[in-house]
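Researcher: Here's the sequence for the chain we discussed earlier.
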Amino acid sequence: MVFSSITFLFYFLPIFLVLYFLTPTIKGKNVVALLFSLLFYAWGEPRFVSILLFSIVINFCAALLIDARSGAARRFALAVAVAGNLLVLALFKYANFVTANFAALLAPYGIEVLKTNIELPLGISFFTFHCLSYIIDVYRRRFRANRDPVDIALYISLFPQLVAGPIVRYKTVARQLDARRLSLSHASVGARIFIVGLAQKVLVADVVAPLVQVTFDQIPNRSMVEAWIGLVSYTVQIYFDFAGYSNMAIGLGIVLGFTFPRNFRMPYTSFSITEFWRRWHISLSSWLRDYLYIPLGGNRGGNAQTYRNLVMVFLLCGLWHGANWTFILWGAWHGAFLVVERLGLGTVLARLPAPARWAYALLAVMGGWVLFRSSNLSGAAGYYASLIGANGVGDISFDMHDALSERAIVTLIIGCVLAVVPRWLPRWPAPLLLRASADVTVTFALLIFSMITVAAGAYSPFLYFRF
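Model: Thanks. This is the structure I predict for it:
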């Protein structure tokens, strides 16, 4: 089920909210939220609910076992639990990739390898990271294992953040599972954030999506102009699509009484790749820092070890996004930039004017998006060639001409402006009442236009549903 769908907005969400707020106790609300979360997940992929329930049961029991042990037994219980989570993730997400590569590697020698064709459960990367952070923090004695299975099941499966994040740590919502504040003011704030996220998705990301599809999927020999239009469009699309989902999840969480972490802070205004990863998918980058980079040694063992750890973390970050060499190279791309910036490029950048630093960071990010969006390495290589004019400069194909509607062009320009300009705008010095009125007016307008767009059926799945 998609947040920006008629089924969710007009049926699932209203029914859920009515039952949720009519239920008098927090325990009762948790049961309602859990049942609807399982229904939300089962709506699109009922056959994979068993995988989600299996993860919930195993990690609930594992945390209790870890909490009750000490010494070597405690470490062994953690190792088994972590290995079990990673094994499930590897089986469903990477088995096809591994067997396909082995088959390609051994085919010249006449050796046949059976290639698997295992479907990917929705959101498995996200709820696996939720499980891992929970059992690891129990091991670190950040908190005691929760003995209420409904609480843990709700934490892992709560539908706003179940399938595409943000990645929520258990410690963030631990107290709120049993005691949270519900009020009209909180609900209104959450509703506003949800509406902004909905507008980002359906009024920006979905409108520029045809430009991306044409340039990456339909035109094999795109011109330089077409390639840059497509790349700029994808840069806008992936930001507004993913930030839109995150804002919708955060907004819904606030309505329900939960506080989810902010996931984006104007990432395209960064002046370096290091800064970009403090602003883009913050919940993932902080998770990788706390549960992978620091345990590997972080920057405590000298420069060589720091660079090794950075590259390892971002190779795994790329692999986490997808079982494809393009994602692995995308991770290596960002890891390499982080290392180079630590080697001295960061010092050089600090001496440059702000526009030059901003242009460097944005072009580096966009260069990585080519790998992220391309379906294979040859497609990425062809796209890079198109960006430098290998297939001509200014030709426009019929497919691109059809996709370049006035609405798409205007939306692309607005998206570029909104992705960058607000960080540098001064605070509006208008009276509080006037600012509040303008805020309500804009929010209501976004809601109306978004609902009209959704009702017309002009929506698409969120991009991060792939991961």
